[in-house]
Amino acid sequence: MSNASSAPSHATILPNGWEMVIGLEVHVELDTKTKLFSASPNHFGDEPNTNIDPVTLGLPGALPVINRRAVELAIRLGLALNCTVQASTFHRKNYFYQDLAKAYQITQYDQPINIDGYMMLPGDVRIGIERAHLEEDTGKSTHFGGTSGRIHGSDYSLVDFNRAGVPLVEIVSRPDIRNADQARQYVSELRSILLAVGASDAKMEEGSMRCDVNVSVRKADEPFGTRCEIKNVNSIRAVGKAIDYEARRQVDVLESGGTIRQETRHWDDAEGRTHTLRVKEDADDYRYFLEPDLVLLDPGAEWVESIRASLPMLPAARRARLSQLTGADKESEAVYVIVERGQDDYVQLVADAGGEPARALVYVQQAFSEAGANPVVPATDLAALTLLERDAKVTATQAKTILAEIVANGGGDAVAIAAAKGFEALDTSAVEAMVDAAIAAQPDAWAKYCAGEEKAMGALVGAIMKSSQGKADGKVVTALLQAKRAK
Amino acid sequence: MSSSSDAKTTPKITAQVVAKVAHLARLDLTEAELALMTTQLTGMLDHFGDIDKLDLSAVIPMAQPFPIKNVYREDVVVPGLDRQEVLDNAPVPQDGRFRVPPSNGSES
């Protein structure tokens, strides 16, 4: 999932002018110590029903009191998503699923805390954020009996209320997403933002970030079609697969003369398909009404602005900064990966130590995948190596060897290592002699290369590198061969 | 519900509407109860109809009747309930959890 944003595009093209319309509802658990409305721990993986209290269990007389930190984290996220933060209220969403003991979920309805934001995707694609509202998470039901542990056909369920009441923000995008690639980019970027602002640990595998995908299809420029909501999409990869499957399913139904029912569908990752979970209840069926046990939540401009001032630089801005420093494209894989690892500050340190930024970016991407945001290798050591390679004192291959040694030892003097290993880039006249020797030894390869067969160059380059024992610079060799052919 | 506050005409409550709401609330009403509830709900909505007839343009809409806002709790853990004590009061505890009949779905 690290670089979905820069993965090569393989957007599914639907047949006969059909177009996908996609909206995402992403639930994220906020990184608080306690629940949204009670003081039990918000902690994943504990023994069932050990983090419970009267509010969590909906015992008579229990009253919810909102967690200030949860509100602060929700606002941090809202601001990072360019939302307007407003005075907000809570509603009861009434239902009889067994995952909440109260028979309702406390959520935000017509006055959510964050509204009208947006996120930018690669290629200047703007995805609107309709709202990012606070609500409580549900408990966890495990279904037994029947077929394969699904709700339908099960004999009974066991409920663990540890998760019930954990603070969530639900981020609802506008239906601005047009293909699976964009959807994956959106989820990936949202995850980066969540981590950057410290709102959530955003672990899809532990369920602290969960995606529901709304998919419909239409002919270009026609009104939106009927949408289906897909649940159980538990990885960024699954987001793409579920969307492609569901869009094709809907097109097949419509092209064979059928109609799409508005329903909730379940993504089965093993089977690679969706199936009906339940026909969607109308919004009115949840009989939302104002939560009488909670008062108005009005954070006020002063608090909101102090939170805004405390926000860190966000991933998009960090990518732009790194791009400017190194000359690499801001949508390149290297830039995405380095910012996601949090190593862009380190690349800056190498540059500050006199290193060449572009080479530093490459070194860090190649050699520091396990190093975390703060590699132990002193930035000055890496800076020295970039200069050694830039000035052609060592070849790219030799630089790689030196880099590996520096990383293994947590630092080291590049010049000293190069000397110890007998590394030195051969001067051009020496390489030229080797090039002539290789051409003389392999006249067939040379003739093919001269005839325009580029692959034939490989045999020549390989022979030259071998005879130079790796001391010839591959780029110099290639340039010499090209120059000789051009004569 | 707040969504009906803009209506200038009071919606008619029928026995079918009451039956639907009763179903959503999993209430099993007799015909006599259905008739009684229909009459009572009609009376309540008529009352809101009376309010709607007043000139309320100078009244600021309010989400809550309470004159207070922003009641917060700090993010500090307080020990909750003992699992055994809670499960001793559950109809069917099993493996540290609540055993319940199969239901029609979940929110997550």
TrEMBL record, chain B:
Pfam families with a match to the protein in the record = GatC
What GO terms describe the biological role, i.e. biological process, of this protein? glutaminyl-tRNAGln biosynthesis via transamidation; regulation of translational fidelity; translation
According to its UniProt record, this protein's enzyme class is ligase
Reaction equation(s) it catalyzes: L-aspartyl-tRNA(Asn) + L-glutamine + ATP + H2O = L-asparaginyl-tRNA(Asn) + L-glutamate + ADP + phosphate + 2 H(+); L-glutamyl-tRNA(Gln) + L-glutamine + ATP + H2O = L-glutaminyl-tRNA(Gln) + L-glutamate + ADP + phosphate + H(+)
Known EC number: 6.3.5.-
The record's GO molecular-function terms, alphabetically, read: asparaginyl-tRNA synthase (glutamine-hydrolyzing) activity; ATP binding; glutaminyl-tRNA synthase (glutamine-hydrolyzing) activity
UniProt keyword terms in alphabetical order: ATP-binding, Ligase, Nucleotide-binding, Protein biosynthesis
Note whether Phosphoprotein occurs among the keywords: no
Name the segments for region: Disordered: 87-108
Which InterPro entries does this entry report, sorted A to Z? Asp/Glu-ADT_sf_sub_c, GatC
Q: Which Gene3D superfamilies match?
A: Glu-tRNAGln amidotransferase C subunit, N-terminal domain
Report the family membership. Belongs to the GatC family.
Q: What's this chain's function?
A: Allows the formation of correctly charged Asn-tRNA(Asn) or Gln-tRNA(Gln) through the transamidation of misacylated Asp-tRNA(Asn) or Glu-tRNA(Gln) in organisms which lack either or both of asparaginyl-tRNA or glutaminyl-tRNA synthetases. The reaction takes place in the presence of glutamine and ATP through an activated phospho-Asp-tRNA(Asn) or phospho-Glu-tRNA(Gln).
Quaternary structure? Heterotrimer of A, B and C subunits.
Protein name per Swiss-Prot or TrEMBL:
Aspartyl/glutamyl-tRNA(Asn/Gln) amidotransferase subunit C
The organism encoding this protein is Acidimicrobiia bacterium BACL6 MAG-120924-bin43
Gene encoding the protein: gatC
